Amino acid sequence: MPMTYRFTAQLAFGVDDPDADDCMMAGVAESDDEDGFSLLFMCDFDEPDEQEISLGMDTHCLVTPDQGTAYGCVREVELDDNVLRVTLDPASLDDLDLTDPIIEAVLLAPAADVARMREVLPRVLAFGRPDARPRLAGLAL
User: Fold this and answer.
1) What is the C-alpha separation between 42 and 56, in angstroms, rounded?
2) How far apart are CA 37 and CA 58, in angstroms?
């Protein structure tokens, strides 16, 4: 049985303004300092170009606290009450500097921030090639 890493997210956010941001992002974090655990989901605003497609970067990206980065690595995202459960491709764990393929974030962020994350996250995860799109439960496009 895969192990689960669980943390409390005091922060949640979603940004999707192409005039103000370089990319679409949604995320959760323990705190606003660099020592806390965080998950940052990102994608471009524009459709992937040929180089991104050839490099396998034509999908969502996940970034972890030490700048661990993997593309198309999220297999499932479930939001149940105040728990965001993310299941990752075990092959991506080294790239992400993680040891557990399942991460649970207990969301204690302000309700408006959680609502914004809920709005943007499914759009980030729907970006790019269809075979890299995770299953979503409790989140709707």
Assistant:
1) 15
2) 26
